[in-house]
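Dear colleague,

Thank you for sharing your sequence with our group. We've completed the structure prediction you requested, and as agreed, I am returning the results in plain text so they can be pasted directly into your records. Please verify that the sequence below matches your submission; if there's any discrepancy, let me know and we will rerun it promptly.
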Amino acid sequence: MTDLAAYESAAIEAARVGGEVLRKRFRTAMAGRVEVKGHHDYVTEVDREAEAAILGYLRARFPDHAVMSEEGAPDAERDAAYRWVVDPLDGTTNFYHGVQPFAVSVALEDARGIVAGAVHDPLHEETFHAHRGGGARLDGRPIRCSRPDGAGKALIATGFPFRELSRLDRYVAAFVATVRSTAGLRRAGSASIDLAYTACGRYDGFFEIGLSRWDLAAGVLLVQEAGGVVTDVLGGSTYLDSGDVVAAGPEMHGTLVGITREAFG
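Please find the predicted structure tokens below.
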């Protein structure tokens, strides 16, 4: 299969397979045992159940592809032409506290970068999806990043750097500067949702540090295909490896990266 739109369709289906697990288990006693992976970092039985459903679907359809998933070890075949990058439950802390949002993120990458991806919100029944060069969509409808009339009217999303407490002071500096220069700042607890909302214009931009590849892969493609710009906090291209990201439409991106470059440079 070489059709990028077909890979996009597979990402959508895989994300919805995982999302159905989350939808059925949300706010029930079936959420099960919670394990602590690290400081403020958790995994539940539902993470693993959703992951198993997603990986079962992908491996049945694409046995020659590698997989990287949050809750499992990466496949050994690092030289595979394609690799799926999966977060079965982005927003685990929200989920096990019984609050929203949370999502499933599924992306496919090759040697050039992200090929296709989908972010699925199972409670709102929304699926954001894209493939390289094909534009971004929400349930089949084209979406675009916003073009706010100045930073003072922009609503920005962020996430607290719970894995990067050594850089907390620098993050707080960026937080304060953003609050002072924009219409507001929101912290929802799911980076893939933050990126999807940036891609469709609900948010005017997003920044965070210390994320993982599976948090970002599908969402950054959405923003790029929606006409936006994605960089690291210094304006470079290391975001998938560093986990530090700034995403916004072209006009707002310059303002945001100016703030983060000052804070983290």
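Summary note from our side: The chain has two domains: 4-141, 151-264.

Kind regards,
the structure core
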